[in-house]
Amino acid sequence: MTAHGEMIMEYPSADTVKLVLSGAWKLGGELPGDDKVQQTLQDKPGVRKVVFDTRELATWDTGLLTFLMNLSKFCSRQHININSDGLPGGAKKLLELASAVPEKKDARQAEERVEFFTYLGDETIYLVQSAGALLAFIGDAVIAFQRLLRGKAQFRRADLGSIMQAVGAQALPIVSLICFLVGLILAFIGAIQLQLFGAQIYVADLVGIAMVRLMAAIMTGIVMAGRTGGAFAAQLGTMQVNQEIDALKTLGISPMEFLVLPRMLALGLMMPLLCLYANLMGILGGMVVGVGMLDIGLIEYYNETAKAVGLWNLGIGLFSGCVFGIIVALSGCMRGMQCGRSAAAVGDAATSAVVTAIVGIIISTALITIICNFLGI
Amino acid sequence: MTAKEAHITVRDLTMAYGDYVLMRDLNFTINRGDIFIVMGGSGCGKSTLMTILIGLKAPAKGKVLYGEVDFWGADAQTRDRVIRRAGVMYQSGALWSSMTLAENVSLPLETYTDLSPGQTREVVELKLALVGLAGFEEFYPSEISGGMQKRAGIARAMALDPEILFFDEPSAGLDPVSARRLDDLILELNESLGTTMVVVTHELASIFAIGSNSVFLDVSQRTMTATGNPNQLLAETKDPTLRMFLTRGEKS
Predict the structure, then answer these.
(1) Most A CBs within 10 Å: which of B57, B90, B91, B103, as the mutation test of the A interface?
(2) pLDDT value at position A1?
(3) Is residue B220 part of a domain?
């Protein structure tokens, strides 16, 4: 007995080829390919019949079947008759089963080659459409908000509470860490420059204004985009996959009011509070460097910070925080609601939610900064 | 026997995804009190037909009439109003996973009725007891089995005492006994409440046990090839595809 499959071709009569198969025809082992048989059949156009002799065949599995399938496809194209009587009983039956249902010709998706300009055009159209979808979503959100103001919106107050807890209180540790370190870093960078002029005390101004006016809101916004925006998209996406959103729609409950509105409200309310907290942590970070490394007194540092940071700075910071919160909630919910019906689509939705939110935060920061510059505040 | 009143009428309906036409020229009538089976092989568009009937996807062509109302020709408010009188059981139950069973069933009640919390709780307990889930009020959907989720889905669909109940593959993925119980439940609700049932399925046992009317979607011809009582269709049909479907391809 041989360890691998072997095939010998015999010619019992002028129009018949006999394939003598022996050894182990196992997938992964060394098997003769069917191209050899095809070559022979093409070389001898007189052959009209293929028969098998498998008395020496020790074992077989899918390896034999794929060989036979390929051969029978080739033979049916060439109108050559295959006589499967010589095959093992099991193989014969499986072969019949595999060819019982004819291949559905139009089911295989044709892989079309897409021209570059076609691709470019498609993408452009898609971009315009998705911009339209974004505007439509914002419009729906505004309508839902109006209904809330008129006391008509349908959502569960308990949901709002638990979302507020998840996006607010539970985000405190990560916001503390990030903003404390950002304050610390700002102080270090400032200190190197300011020490040259002996103006260490202005580290307090630098850290205070930078954190309160801008950095705390941006850092919190980005943390929330990753933490909460992705979570919103994944939650709503999974609900889409489970048909839970369909179930809401067929009950006449607007998913916009029931799912999106509480999330937007929760982030819009919690973000300013988180920003306020992030301000404190940032200033604390700066203070550690100022007091510990630059020998500024604790009271001195506090007084300098209080003198530098005005109410306008605080107001702009908190306003930005609120805007970022709504951006994060909107992008998370929108990507979740647009999600397809597969696990991969949920992943895409979460990724795209985070990207959209971060882009939105940076763009709106630029806008707010420019507007403040014009207004002189 | 009284003449039956048409509840849902489908006229010249074509379903398509983009350019890909799934089914064309569908014409059938679902009468009040029917248990109407939508049957056909896998991928023939049974579930898509249901999404059109319940207002989630617009048809490419044709009309769906609820009584006299042109469902897809009307505005969104009318559609909402029409479909509010229907309940839907989705294939996987589609219970809201962040809410307990009781909250799932009570949400439609809280939204559309003025019941007091006490009354709502009583109704919820009744509906859950009807589907054999008494005592599971405070469970979350992830804590119960697939069959129980489906039954809870029925309890939610029944919350507002709908005139029509839609079932998407009610017995798919259930063991034979649970599937049978679900069939009994559908029959029982139909008889005692007179609810019109539209059941999308390809389970032969269910089709013959509960169906009083049906439509057969033939995937190879891309249209419907038969409508009527499934038992009668089995006895009378000459169409080889339908006969094959109704007999599992076995020769009698």
Answers:
(1) B90
(2) 45
(3) yes
Which pLDDT tens digit goes with each residue over A113-129? 788 999 999 999 999 99
Name the class of domain A6-98: alpha beta
Domain extent listing, chain A: 6-98, 134-375
Residue B45 forms part of a structural domain: yes
Question: Please, which residues have CB within 8 angstroms of residue B217's CB and are 6 or more apart in sequence?
Answer: B23, B26, B38, B39, B40, B44, B45, B46, B49, B223, B224, B225
Q: Are strands B6-17 and B20-31 parallel, antiparallel or unpaired?
A: antiparallel
Tens digit of pLDDT for each residue in B72-121? 988 888 888 888 889 999 988 899 998 999 999 999 998 888 889 999 99
The H or E element that residue A19 is part of is strand A16-25
Q: DSSP 3-state helix, strand, coil percentages of chain B (rounded to 5)?
A: 40, 25, 35
Q: Taking CB atoms and an 8 Å cutoff, what residues of chain B touch A154? A: 111
Find the closest chain B residue to A247 by CA distance.
B94
Least Cα distance to B224 among B9, B20, B17, B12 occurs for B12
Domain harbouring B42, CATH code: 3.40.50.300
Q: What are phi and psi of A254, to 5 degrees?
A: -75, 120
What ipTM describes this predicted complex? 0.82
As a whole number of angstroms, the distance between CA A195 and CA B2 comes to: 98
Report the C-alpha gap between A37 and A9 in whole angstroms.
8
Q: What is the DSSP string of A74-142?
A: HHHHTT-EEEGGGS-HHHHHHHHHHTTSPP-TTTSPP-PPPPHHHHHHHHHHHHHHHHHHHHHHHHHHH
Q: Which DSSP symbol is given to A202?
A: G
Instruction: Look at residue B224 and give its three-state secondary structure.
Output: strand
Is the confidence at residue A33, as pLDDT, over 90? no
Which residues in chain B have Cβ-Cβ distances shorter than 8 Å to A242? 92, 94, 97
For B35-64, how does the pLDDT look when each residue is reduced to its tens digit (9 = 90+)? 999 998 888 888 899 999 998 888 998 999
A79 sits in the region (left: phi over 0; alpha: psi -120 to 50; else beta) called left
Amino acid at B107: L
Tokens, residue B250: 């076995």
* Contact predicate A22/A56, CB 8 Å: yes
State how far the alpha carbon of A135 is from the alpha carbons of A142, A356, B108, in Å. 10, 14, 30
β pairing state of B61-66 and B6-17: antiparallel
- The verdict on residue B242 lying in a domain is yes
Alpha carbons B170 and B187: distance in angstroms, whole number: 13
User: How many domains in chain B?
Assistant: 1
Could you tell me how many CB contacts below 8 A there are between chain A and chain B?
50
| B31: helix, strand or coil | strand
A interface test, pick of B56, B158, B244 with most A CB neighbours within 10 Å: B56
Q: Strand, coil or helix: what is B209?
A: helix
Closest of A235, A221, A207 to residue A174, by C-alpha? A221
**Is residue B106 situated within a structural domain?**
no
B1 band by pLDDT with thresholds 50, 70 and 90: very low
User: Identity (one letter) of the amino acid at B216?
Assistant: F
Tokens 């009983």, residue? A89
Q: Residue B65's beta-bridge partner residues? A: B9, B70
